[in-house]
Amino acid sequence: MRKNVCLLVLLLSGWVLAAEPLEAWEQFMEQERLLLDQLEAARRELPPEVFSELLSEQARWYERREQSARYTSHLPGMDDMDESEYWYALAVHNRARSEWISAWRFTYSPAAAELDDWEGWWLDGEGGHLIVTRSRSDSFEFSISVVRGPTFHLGELDGSARVDGRSAEFRITPEGTEDETVLRFSRDGPFLVLEGENTGYWHGVRAYFDGRYLRGGASDED
Hints:
This protein is an alpha+beta fold. The chain has helices at 2-13, 21-45, 48-73, 83-107, 110-113, and strands at residues 120-123, 128-136, 139-148, 153-164, 167-172, 181-188, 191-197, 211-216.
């Protein structure tokens, strides 16, 4: 997982650039094909009502993707768009979206039914990745990493959350502060919902941990 996050940071921050807009466009088209493949697989595998919901969400996502890519491709103080950055940004959004659709597919697979309420690799389709490992019946270990928005703010936190039924809670007071950080986990259908209080110590100004996460099939962090 950390390898994927590092790659995402490199792409979004502009450290990896195409020599020409054509190269960036070709990378976008490859990710676009992979995204459409994921959608077609989801159509075959998901219950019709679930796929219909996903398709409606997909239309809204296309609008957000375009807005974000255009924002990213305009350099500070300049009116002209960097075409390479624009196509790269679209490609990165597509990669994250493909992961999100893949997570929907895994959620309705037999393999997901074998897992408990918490364990697994979770993602929110917006740059948030959460790994949960179950250590005891009353708690679990977690690690969360996020890359948020066109300004690419980062965040990371790990610890042990105490379980109470289908909810869990993590508390920590950062060294040198008086504000306690609280993360609350809860299950809502297929989603793991994460809500935080006073989490700013652990992430950039525009980053956040909150969101609705779906379980993916595997993590690169072992």
